[in-house]
């Protein structure tokens, strides 16, 4: 049998790769964002982009560290971090270099093939999750896909003989039909019914309701889905002991405990996973953990960690798939993000800055500022009047991005690289909120 010389020859630079240059200037196409004002781009947006998100607050063209710039050249302090995504801030040089290097080497191959970056990322996630031997990872492109995979996996538990799935009121698990069936908000669900069935919502953090849900028909429960801290609902932590009880009841009835750490995972709360805080998780080992948001530092990537060989085997060959999930570039982005968090000691920084920031937010002396809660750099400021949207608008005009996740709640999920000094303008803004804000014309 003869082998073609091409098949064994070492990879030689092709004409295409030879034209690449490190400075990136060669072959560059014009960047459209280089011209046009915020008003012009907003107008064009309304004629080209589907109106699912409402009018954009600004049109952004550039970012660096915790700052972004709009098309008019105005700078903003980004305390939302792309909704708990940009852990390393914007345009982090290590992340940018890792993505560019991987894309310039091998960008995408489909899951008919493996890549070192994909395998290394799966290994890193298993190690960070402290998952036992036999655990496995499935990589996705987003949080909703991670939860979709988790829901499919739980359907296979008991060979499909467990029709009940439990979730909590206030839960947000994503927008695809399966993930949406686990999401509580009526406005998100109702237009798309019928959704996949069997999901029951229990009152948030209510231990007795949880016991009751298992006391009757507990053997028909496939899984209980929980966010250790509910993100979209307003940074609401589960009450102490709740996760331990959830583990006890799921184990007793042979159901799976699925923790959605899409928002709380990958260092956001000062540990790799929120449930690893003793006071949050009480030492529980889950059956499934889902991640996304911060995993790739801004590059779209998510995943599901299945704990132990039995859970990992629930999705077998051909039972789930994805074209992009875990592609080399996404995996390299996640590895670089994890690497920088470790190298720069960012988990400690997240913990310490988070504590100091909450303390400063609590001492503004402004009567509109109520409870301040959260873990690490996932923080909620509860306002004493339903003025969150107005505070957000004021902040934006003052060059600060925050998010109103309920009418009375501001959410902060800033980059881990933020400093005390950089965040001070937001503390000052809260301190200076006028008492009659509720009466102001919007
Ligand atoms: C954002 C989020 C999701 C959905 O993730 P997408 O990447 O937007 O699909 C799921 N669960 C939680 C807890 C989230 O915060």
Question: What report would you give on this structure?
Answer:
The protein has 442 residues and is of the alpha/beta class. The chain has two domains: 169 residues, Alpha-Beta Complex (Aspartate Aminotransferase, domain 1); 245 residues, Type I PLP-dependent aspartate aminotransferase-like (Major domain) (Aspartate Aminotransferase, domain 2), CATH 3.40.640.10. It contains 17 helices and 17 strands. The strands form four sheets. A seven-stranded mixed β-sheet has the order 4-12-11-10-7-5-6, with helices on both faces. The chain has a four-stranded mixed β-sheet with strand order 1-2-3-15. The protein has a four-stranded antiparallel β-sheet with strand order 13-14-17-16. Helix 6 packs across helix 14 and helix 10 packs parallel to helix 11. The longest helix is centred in the last third of the chain and has 17 residues. The termini are far apart. The relative contact order is 0.14. The site of pyridoxal-5'-phosphate has 15 residues, from helix 7. Pathway: Amino-acid biosynthesis; L-arginine biosynthesis; N(2)-acetyl-L-ornithine from L-glutamate: step 4/4. GO terms for molecular function: identical protein binding; N2-acetyl-L-ornithine:2-oxoglutarate 5-aminotransferase activity; pyridoxal phosphate binding. Homodimer. This is Acetylornithine aminotransferase.
